[in-house]
TrEMBL record, chain A:
InterPro entries: ABC_transp_permease (IPR001851). The chain crosses the membrane at residues 21-38, 65-83, 95-111, 117-140, 149-168, 201-220, 241-267, 273-293, 300-316, 328-347. Keywords: Cell membrane, Membrane, Transmembrane, Transmembrane helix. It is a multi-pass membrane protein. One of its GO terms (cellular component) is plasma membrane. The lineage of its organism: Bacteria, Pseudomonadati, Pseudomonadota, Alphaproteobacteria, Rhodobacterales. It comes from Rubellimicrobium thermophilum DSM 16684. CDD domains: TM_PBP1_transp_TpRbsC_like. It is found in: Cell membrane. This is Nucleoside ABC transporter membrane protein. One of its GO terms (molecular function) is transmembrane transporter activity.
From TrEMBL, chain B:
Residues 462-473, 485-494 have a biased composition (Basic and acidic residues). It is found in: Cell membrane. CDD domains: ABC_Carb_Monos_I (cd03216). GO terms for cellular component: plasma membrane. GO terms for molecular function: ATP binding; ATP hydrolysis activity. It comes from the Bacteria. Its EC number is 3.6.3.17. It comes from Rubellimicrobium thermophilum DSM 16684. It holds the Pfam family ABC_tran. This is Nucleoside ABC transporter ATP-binding protein.
């Protein structure tokens, strides 16, 4: 009989080995799923994971990788702070919408003026919009002890209604023949967030995502704020004893994740999406939660996870087009990834042991204790 | 001589950087109360954990009633007839006594039958217990009864008790002792771990003494004096630590009519506590655990803010300051619970050193960036100065034994040169070498102090960091139990308390009968250290 035995300390090896293993398991289980749907599993897996990068249409799909990954990475990096500290901002999608709305609104207020200052101003406004939206659950929690999970999640629905209202009302393109949706921000030089190097997909959002990853890495490794976040997540009482105010931490983490989500929204609305429209929100804010955990709440892990998640999005679309796989099967496939990751996580804190055999000595695990 | 119930032969267990048990052998006779003695860090906890199946020894064998005993889990140990009452209770406050006991059983009988059994067993052994009561409403002594009854329901052949009296009032201790004697008459062997040598002399017929993980002596405690046993524990003649003549200075910490609700659900509110501590003196806070000591520490450390004027440091009102603000001004604390409060278990010692020392040791650079090199150097200095047994500063706090972590935590605060150091239960649990509650521990603390003095020929502020361990006590404030009633003898010095007093017998002044009003008082006898009386 196989039994689970608690490790003396969480295994560092398994912490980093489980995500690739989870991807592998997803491929296997997904392959079985696709086979059950009557498709060739190998072709399906190749279409999802290989073709977007190296397939016949790679020239078209490769830039999409950065375009899709950038908002995921930017949002997930912000979320990682809160998640590490035990502050659960589930409403990044709403902050993403609000960032796009406020940023676009500030920019459109200057239309049709042309200035190099407009785009930076829009980015700031977008960050501020996301931050303010995230402050609502943060302040409610600090002041009244409400649950930030519920409040931030419910505010997503408020945000999507605001989005619809803005697209139909105040931000509607006056020259749009009555169709819902704002002016096209891509076609206005002052606000256009175009590719910096043609054919790569590298727009300002991707640059911001890379900067955010590096900054987050520095904050976690070397800054008092990152230390406070890690300490509070591990041991709230020790954090209180160390003089870290839980309220400040809630406001700091929610504010940071909200601001980054807002920025992601702004980069999206000025770039790939191009305009405020009713269907602007496509769930980046929710997918980023998966990305954050898939990346182990570690900035570099999030970078890799964001790229992987973007790949399954692009590959999933290709599989729908080329193989006729239903969209639900692709969503199921993505969901499996998180499912397997969580299941494999057992191995970081537990090890499998055949009953009757003595456990290996924990000395190697103990040596892994270094930060 | 009868055959041993439990025969331990050559048990060895090593942790990274420290050998907890080295070739330990001893016998426990059936129907006896056997004491396990030793300084903190001597390996007592590891040994009993091996017997109870929580730790797997590297080498050695055990025989229980003629059969090999090598439990892989506490469940196997329980099946073999070994039960253990831990120092820390594992009870759910919100559940009833019977529900709590049922939760710990493999196949619990219907609650009604179980309640009847609980009543029966608790009456047989003189441990009155109502199975229907909610655990959250019970006193510490009653909670311990729940744990004991839970063990007795298994009809154990060997009952291990780890420091059972630290949470009990003297009356409860008397009840516990008569229960243990009854158990012995019924044929159960008891392995009794305690620091309180007088208790062991009164209760046990045999004692095994551990030092540095080895058995150094076996004796009959009834025939030895406490001093002799203490000397066996430390392995040398005891010398009473000389009290340094430190001039007593101004009042540095003044607590005045401190009242505050407990932040915890089943905590104890502070009611009208007043005392004052002068520079160069040690003030002991006595009392049975759970009578507001934790809350007092929270109120002093700043984790709990209090109303203006209640806590003053050098005349400055610090009641509204955060823990960081108080630390900056020199009010440092070492809480009772090490893992999870004083230290974060999964963080390295470097990170744990940074945790409270970041401001006083200037471990942050411009822009709030951490000086990890400085933090590592500080952690290394704590490890060296306080003899923390660990491979290095990059080990997580969880990997240290309780005593070693305690040395680290106390050392971390002392090396920051506090104006006032508040320590809650420094010898609690596995304890540390700077404590022990008996002359043994105190001797160690004297030694540590001496070594530190040589290394740091400080004067004035510089030796402020040693003060707490070598200054005479001037008085003691004693929280009273909440429900009145309990009496304490002045001779019952709490372990942690006497260590803080440099090992001298404590002059613990206790009012003869607690007044019905909830007042806390400091003794009137010592004019200088005493606070105010509120009869």
């Amino acid at each position: 009989m196989i039994i689970l035995e608690r490790r003396p300390a969480p295994s560092r090896l398994w912490t980093w080995a489980t995500p690739p293993l989870a991807v592998l398991m997803t491929m296997i289980a997904g392959g079985l799923l696709f086979a059950a749907l009557g498709k060739d599993p190998l072709t399906a897996i190749r279409t999802i994971f290989w073709d977007p990068l190296f397939g016949p249409f790679a020239g078209f799909t490769r830039p999409q990788l950065l375009i899709k990954a950038a908002p995921l990475i930017l949002i997930a990096t912000g979320l990682a702070f809160g998640f590490r500290a035990g502050i659960w901002n589930i409403g990044a999608e709403g902050q993403y919408i609000l960032g796009a709305l406020t940023g676009a609104a500030v920019g459109l207020a200057f239309y049709p003026a042309e200035s190099r200052l407009i785009f930076p101003l829009m980015v700031l406004a977008g960050a501020l919009g996301g931050l303010v939206w995230a402050m609502i659950p943060a302040l409610l929690r600090v002041r009244f002890g409400t649950n930030e999970i519920l409040v931030s999640l419910m505010l997503v629905y408020v945000a999507s209604n605001l989005l619809a209202w803005a697209a139909l009302g105040p931000l509607r393109n006056p020259e749009g023949l009555g169709f819902p949706g704002s002016r096209n921000l891509r076609q206005w030089a002052s606000s256009a967030n175009l590719e910096l190097i043609p054919g790569t997909g590298l727009h300002w959002g991707a640059v911001a995502a890379l900067v955010a990853v590096c900054a987050a890495y520095g904050l976690f490794a070397r800054h008092v704020f990152g230390f406070a976040v890690r300490l509070a997540g591990q041991s709230p009482r020790a954090a209180a004893f160390a003089g870290i105010s839980p309220s400040h931490l809630v406001i700091g983490c929610m504010g940071l994740s909200g601001a980054l989500a807002g920025m992601a929204g702004l980069f999206e609305v000025t770039g790939p999406a191009g305009q405020i429209s009713i269907d602007f929100a496509v769930g980046y804010g929710f997918t980023a939660i998966i990305v954050a955990f898939l990346g182990r709440l570690h900035p570099l892990g999030i970078l890799a996870a964001g790229l992987l998640m973007a790949l399954t999005y692009i590959g999933g679309e290709m599989a729908q087009l080329q193989l006729g796989l239903p969209a639900a099967a692709i969503q199921l496939f993505q969901g499996m990834l998180l499912f397997f990751l969580l299941a494999m996580d057992v191995l970081t804190t537990y090890r499998l042991r055949l009953k009757g055999r003595p456990a290996p000595e924990p000395s190697s695990a103990a040596a892994e204790g270094a930060r | 001589m009868t055959e041993a119930l439990l025969a331990v032969r050559g048990i060895t267990k090593a942790y990274p950087g420290v050998v907890a048990n080295s070739d330990v052998s001893f016998d426990i006779s059936p129907a006896s109360i056997h004491a396990l003695l030793g300084e903190n860090g001597a390996g007592k906890s590891t040994l009993v954990k091996a017997i109870y199946g929580l730790v797997r020894p590297d080498a050695g064998t055990m025989t229980l009633a003629g059969r090999p005993h090598a439990p892989a889990s506490p469940r196997e140990a329980r099946e073999a007839g070994v039960a253990m009452v831990f120092q820390h209770f594992s009870l759910f406050d919100a559940l009833s006594v019977a529900e709590n006991i049922a939760l710990g059983m493999e196949n619990p009988p219907p609650l009604r039958d179980l309640s009847a059994r609980i009543r029966e067993v608790s009456q047989d052994y003189g441990l009155p217990l109502d199975p229907g009561r909610t655990v959250g409403d019970l006193s510490a002594g009653e909670r311990q009864r729940v744990e004991i009854v839970r063990c007795l329901l298994q009809n154990p052949r060997l009952l291990i008790m780890d420091e059972p009296t630290s949470v009990l009032t003297p009356q409860e201790v008397a009840i516990l002792f008569s229960t243990l004697r009854k158990l012995r008459e019924g044929g159960t062997a008891i392995l009794y771990i305690s620091h309180k040598l007088e208790e062991i002399r009164a209760l046990c017929e045999k004692a095994t003494i551990l030092r540095g993980g080895r058995v150094v002596a076996t004796c009959d405690p009834r025939e030895r004096s406490a001093r002799q046993m203490a000397e066996m524990m430390v392995g040398g003649a005891l010398r009473a630590p000389a009290r340094a003549e430190v001039p007593v200075g101004e009042v540095v910490l003044a607590v005045e009519r401190l009242s505050a609700p407990s932040p915890r659900l089943h905590g104890m509110p502070l009611r009208d506590v007043s005392f004052a501590v002068r520079a160069g003196e040690v003030l002991g806070i006595g009392g049975v655990a759970g009578n507001g000591q934790d809350e007092l520490l929270l109120a002093l450390s700043g984790e709990m803010r209090v109303a203006p004027g209640m806590v003053r440091l050098k005349g400055e009102d610090v009641g509204a300051l955060s823990p960081s603000g108080r630390r900056m001004r020199g009010l440092l604390c070492a809480p009772e619970e090490r893992n999870g409060h004083a230290a974060a278990a999964d963080m390295t010692l470097t990170e744990n050193a940074f945790m409270t020392a970041r401001m006083r040791k200037g471990l942050t650079r411009g822009g709030g960036f951490v000086d990890w090199r400085g933090a590592r150097a500080f952690a290394t200095r704590i490890i060296e100065t306080f003899d923390v047994r660990t491979p290095g500063p990059e080990v997580t706090a969880r990997q240290l034994s309780g005593g070693n972590l305690q040395k680290f935590v106390i050392g971390r605060e002392i090396l920051q040169r506090p104006e006032v150091l508040v320590v809650n239960q420094p010898t609690w649990g596995g304890g540390c070498r700077c404590g022990g509650g008996d002359p043994a521990g105190a001797a160690r603390s004297g030694r540590t102090g001496g070594r530190r003095r040589r290394r740091q020929p400080g004067s004035g502020r510089a030796d402020g960091d040693q003060r707490p361990f070598r200054c005479p006590e001037r008085g003691a404030a004693v929280p009273r139990p909440p429900r009145g009633g309990a009496e304490r003898g002045g001779d019952r010095a709490d372990a942690g308390w006497s260590a803080r007093n440099g090992g001298r017998p404590c002059r613990l002044t206790v009012p003869p009968r607690p007044a019905p009003a909830c007042s806390r008082s400091a003794p009137a006898g010592h004019g200088r250290g005493a606070g105010h009386d509120h009869p």
